Amino acid sequence: MDKFTLGLVQHSCSPVVEENIQKAIDGINEACRCGANVVMTQELFRTSYFCQTEDVRYFDAAETIPGPSTDIFAPLARKNNAVLVLSLFERRAPGLFHNTAVVLETDGSIAGVYRKMHIPDDPQFYEKFYFTPGDLGFHPIRTSIAKLGVMVCWDQWYPEAARLMALRGADVLLYPTAIGWTMEDTNDERKRQFDAWLTIQKSHAVANGIPVAAANRSGLEHPNEMFEEIRPTERKRSRKGLNFWGNSFICGSQGEILARGPNSGDDVVVAEIDNRRTDDVRRIWPFLRDRRIDDYQGLDKRWLSDGETAK
Predict the structure, then answer these.
(1) Active-site residue, from 13, 51, 153, 251
(2) CA-to-CA distance for 144 and 126, rounded, in angstroms?
């Protein structure tokens, strides 16, 4: 298709799985009413962001693919005649779990899956405790609407991943996301982090001449919310938690913002993606043509010491 319409669903999450699923359903339906025929959820939309703490009880929140969520959302894809990108906590086998995005075709069938490749391990982002790194590589998922370069959150900081998706013909780069500030971050630090987050993803668009989109969570979430009742007064006093900054966005192939959500609250972000514009931009900015692929040896190394030969 020369053009398609992309929708992103941004919302706050509660400890109640059913409430979060309903928010995603409502957001998908709203995006489709606005004309979207490809709709993406935020990262791990079914639950609170449990990776703020290391607790084996959270493994019970994982599911198989296909499984409960694909059963719920397949009819929604059929009803709206839309491709859906869902971010799920995958139980692949006993003791083997992934942070996985599954893509549903317009008929509800599974078009493909992507398992998050880069797994962070930072204060209140203890994802290495829960997720095995992906083993499927960076391959776009072909659908009847578009070829989708689906990755997940921490992947969005790596230009190598974006480049490989683009080189394999992705029409758009998609990042379900869960990123926010800790309670200890100063206002200056918050601005630096947000600006860096937006800049790196827009740079993927510019460097590859391809649209990029990220669907991010919003709202304040505290550790162990799924297991502990937190009173409002305790919530105000708590110095632990993540304030997810929202700002889900879609940008064009020169990094221009096409649509963007608020920094808080629930929202649906919709914009048209024009594949012909990708072709036009790559003609005037032929970065792919001028790449020196004959002299990039060493990019597959962890580090190169002074004078070390990469070839």
Answers:
(1) 153
(2) 36
Is residue 153 flagged as an active site residue? yes
Sign of CA dihedral 65, 220, 193, 248: positive
pLDDT one-digit tens code per residue, 208-257? 999 999 999 999 999 877 776 545 555 544 568 999 999 999 999 999 99
Q: CA-to-CA distance for 153 and 27, rounded, in angstroms?
A: 20
Taking domain 3-295, whether its CATH number is 3.30.310.170 is answered by no
Marked catalytic residue, from 13, 116, 221, 225:
116
32, 43, 90, 251: which is the annotated catalytic residue? 43
Query: Catalytic annotation on 43?
Result: yes
How far apart CA 45 and CA 266 sit, in angstroms, is 12
**What ranges do the domains of the chain cover?**
3-295
Complete DSSP assignment for 85-151: EEEEEEEEETTEEEEEEEEE-TTS-EEEEEE-----EETTEEGGGT-PPPSS-S-PEE-SS-EEEE-
Q: What is the pLDDT of residues 164-196, one digit of tens each?
A: 999 999 999 999 999 999 999 999 999 999 999
Structure-derived torsion over alpha carbons of residues 93, 94, 100, 103, reported in degrees to the nearest 10: 40
The whole-angstrom separation of Cα 253 and Cα 172 is 9
Handedness of CA 40, 146, 81, 262 (dihedral sign): positive
Active-site residue 221, yes or no?
Answer: no
